[in-house]
Amino acid sequence: MDMGERDPDASGGPSGGGLSTGEVARRLGVAPTTVRTWDRRYGLGPAAHTGGRHRRWTPEDLARLERMCALTATGLPPSEAARLALDPAGTGGSAPVTDRSASDARTAREAAVPGAPPAARARSMRRRAGTGLGLGDVRQECKGVARAALRLDAAALETLLGEAIEQHGLVAAWTEVITPTLQAVGRKWERSGERYVEVEHFLSWHVSGALRRHAPPVPADRPGALTVLACVPAEHHTLPLEALAAALAERGLPVRMFGGALPVESLVAAVRRTGPAAVGLWAQSRTTASRPLAEHIAQIEWGVRGARRKPVVLTLGPGWAGQTAPGLPRPAGLAEAVAAVASAATGEATPQQPGT
Hints:
mainly alpha, 4-stranded parallel β-sheet, 50% helix, disordered N terminus, disordered C terminus, MerR family transcriptional regulator, DNA-binding, Cobalamin-bd_sf, Cbl-bd_cap, MerR_fam
């Protein structure tokens, strides 16, 4: 992944001779300076050097760093986490670790032994690459983003989110990297009571900032091509609409974004004043979704007499499940929502989504 800035450790070594510091940092979800600091302070550097100052990291080196990330994410001080990560024989004395940590340490020792079976090494890599969020089978970038969020590492999180958007595009980055991570953090919060609320807020804030930074400028208005986006009254979850607004801007489609909990009268006024081709209404909860409201907006006419038009109303979000009606499309995801808006803006027919 080359975004124009190369890590000084990333050159001068054969690609088959291990990973560069920059590559390791991206896999772990930390800044390259963090990797170098751990090396300098705690001796967590690669076992061998190649090409003078250039450093190449082996799977065993990476496993130690993944162990370090997993331990620091539990709240252990970095010095204690480093001691455990560097203690392959388990002889470092009593340590305040859990049974899970002891199990991880045994798995790590298996993989650290030269000539260990490939299955043991792969098992260690999978377990120690975990974040405790239950991400499942996802892109590697998700794990890096999740680790950075758990550590509340703003610099690393912004870098990783930016790289994901630049490499994959807004729609794919949202669907395949950002959404799985947000959902995993949400599940962890639900299982943990009041814990990890700060992680969810922290991640959401930085995702919002990344979407704004990497979206192109809002295109100039074109008659009949505008989209109005708003959360229904009492709904405050704006992040999915922010992703849609950024994706539409990426497609060159003009947008008016009104954010969370827009009152009914204000929504009606916005539609009458702007004359949109499409209106996207987000509802996270069934308690906030209102089919009568969506049907009312869909009947608003605008334009000159004899050529008046009505907007296509997209019911967006899980709150609309079971509340849709004919003529109210409910796109299944971000890509489908972008396609539906583009179709409305050009006047082309859109295939009906399930449940519409």
